[in-house]
Recover the amino acids of this structure.
């Protein structure tokens, strides 16, 4: 004779479909299967939403820094184009750096400012992919361009007689064009690989932008291919250019020490130390972000470091590289005087 508990279970199974009060919730495995098939159409950028006081502080600060970045870098590009005396390799690369800084900050700062004062912090899937690709491309290009600029300064100071031949206009165009094209191709590849991963209905990005490492933490598939590409790109664009920059400035400083004039040495040391400060700030924060051990846990320090290299550094570049430069200030004054005269 069947056990009473078994008879009761069998009766419940028969009566359950007939009862109006019977639960229609599917079993847990079926529920998980439905979630896994859910496609993500937009992402929620969490950012600093857990820190309302920090959001109120960051909005005026980031707004002011973004405005300075736009005005300072636009002024450098305009002056270097309008003044014929600045049509040299050094100012050609400075103009490229200024354009990069404008493009880089504009990929995410305007949206970040909107999210700092709004409760709606979403971005579409396509918008997230475009933002990721553009920020990766411009940030990677800046890594290469800083190394190219250090090499240009090495040739100008350590090989002054052969400098016009070694750093020709054609070579300048080739170096800058190669940096832009190669980094764009690399970034498109990394973005396509990352955004083709399944996200299983997860859509909360623990960042204020579609930063690729933050987005990869949401993937429920195998991210090893994407991580290999990111590691290879990080090695090629971080330690290698940084080593070339350090080598160039070491040789530059060795040459400066042989300058007999004390005033000349002070001026050269001041310029090189300012340049190195920007380089170390940019590379130090980027290396911390992309070459540290990966963790699934989101940290507020990651976003703070992103603000440092993505907002602060582009604002400092015009001040460090150009606005302290006597030639640039003189050229800017003459351009302004010509505009006033023509008006």
């Amino acid at each position: 004779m069947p056990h009473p508990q078994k008879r009761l279970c069998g009766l419940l199974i028969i009566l359950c479909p007939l009862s109006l009060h019977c639960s229609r919730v599917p079993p847990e495995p079926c529920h998980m299967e439905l979630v896994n098939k859910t496609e993500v159409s937009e992402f929620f950028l969490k950012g600093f939403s857990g820190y309302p006081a920090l959001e109120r502080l960051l909005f005026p600060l980031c707004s002011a820094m973004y405005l300075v970045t736009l005005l300072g870098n636009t002024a450098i590009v305009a002056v270097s184009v309008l003044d014929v005396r600045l049509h040299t390799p050094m100012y050609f690369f400075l103009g490229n750096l200024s354009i990069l800084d404008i493009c880089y900050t504009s990929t995410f700062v305007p949206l970040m400012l909107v999210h700092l004062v709004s409760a709606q912090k979403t971005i579409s899937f396509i918008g997230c992919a475009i933002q990721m690709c553009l920020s990766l491309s411009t940030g990677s290009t800046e890594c290469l361009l800083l190394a190219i600029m250090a090499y240009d300064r090495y040739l100008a100071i350590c090989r002054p007689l052969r400098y016009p031949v070694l750093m020709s206009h054609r070579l300048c165009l080739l170096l800058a064009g190669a940096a832009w094209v190669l980094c764009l191709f690399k970034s498109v590849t990394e973005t396509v690989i990352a955004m083709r991963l399944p996200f299983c209905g997860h859509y909360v990005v623990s960042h204020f932008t579609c930063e690729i490492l933050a987005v990869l933490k949401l993937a429920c598939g195998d991210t090893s291919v994407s991580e290999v590409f990111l590691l290879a790109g990080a090695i090629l664009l971080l330690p290698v250019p940084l080593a070339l920059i350090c080598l160039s400035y070491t040789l530059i400083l060795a040459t400066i020490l042989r300058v007999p004039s004390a005033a000349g040495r002070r001026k050269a040391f001041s310029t090189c130390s300012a340049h190195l400060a920007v380089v170390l700030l940019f590379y130090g924060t980027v290396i911390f972000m992309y070459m540290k051990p990966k963790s699934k846990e989101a940290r507020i320090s990651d976003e703070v470091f992103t603000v440092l290299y993505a907002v602060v550094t582009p604002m400092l570049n015009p001040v460090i590289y150009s606005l302290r430069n006597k030639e640039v200030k003189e050229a800017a004054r003459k351009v302004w005087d010509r505009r006033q005269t023509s008006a």
User: Anything to note?
Assistant: The CA atoms of residues 164 and 220 lie 54 Å apart. Confidence is low (pLDDT under 50) at residues 1-37.
